[in-house]
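Entry type: protein chain
Record version: 2
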Amino acid sequence: MPWYVIVIIVFVASVILSVFISLPLYLAIKTTHPLHLSREEVTSLWKEKRFASEYDKTLRKDITFTMDDGYIIHGDYMLYPGSKKFVICCHGYSVNREAELEYGLIFYRLGYNVVLFDERGHGDNEQFISTMGYLESKDLNQIIDQVKDKFGLDSSIGLHGVSMGAAVSLFVTKYRKDIEFIIEDCGYVNFKNVLTMQVNKGHLPGVIFAPLASFTSKLLYKFSFKDASIEPDLEKIDVPMLIIHGDIDESVPVKNAYILNERLNCKHKMVLYHSKHANALTDYRSEYEKEVEDFLASLNSD
């Protein structure tokens, strides 16, 4: 074999090997290290592009939650006079609790106390890897306990989540059965499938690189992307749920809403809007608020 053929073969093999090492490494690091936007940045961005309702800012009182591993989670709450009903709002990937404020105000106007918080590695919290709902749902489980400890064990707890926050709300059902309801907005049931789709959009085989990225994440952070999944346990969920999704969602396919709608055995309703990812409230505010109000009213009438 001529020497130049050997050189070409070695070069091509080196390039292929480099891709199979560097791309999974890139995906693992990028996924677990979200852009750390400040609360001020999210407030400004949301005011410019999404929504900005006027409200009494003195309603918001600071609160912190201490996790079992010592990690401190920052948040705030709004108390509705005389109410024992709470909604805990869970934001999406790379933003923070300011992205959930507009949703929280819907519940407050309906007579609910509202708790907003920054998930690990987001907002006012210290830098930490994102586990796409795995550790975050364990945090939420502890936050629910601490809300009940602070405001009364007779407090009822509902959840609202958008995108990763919706996944966090779903995943927490593995740890407790006392949640009154979940409003799940454009969440995923299996993050590895979402990553596979995103890699495919980059004209690469997601079926190959998503598992490799998951394996790399396991080596680096002791967290595999397959850990961020509720799919095997969907039939066990017994929490009433309102499923909201955009039918042109470019980040989390609407297929996730259909999976929930088909496999949940609990009381649930699916509502689709002609919206992109996490834009349903922005595009269909009055319809969104009416769906939430009617869903909550249906629970109270049961």
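Comment: The chain has two domains: 1-32+192-227, 36-190+230-301.
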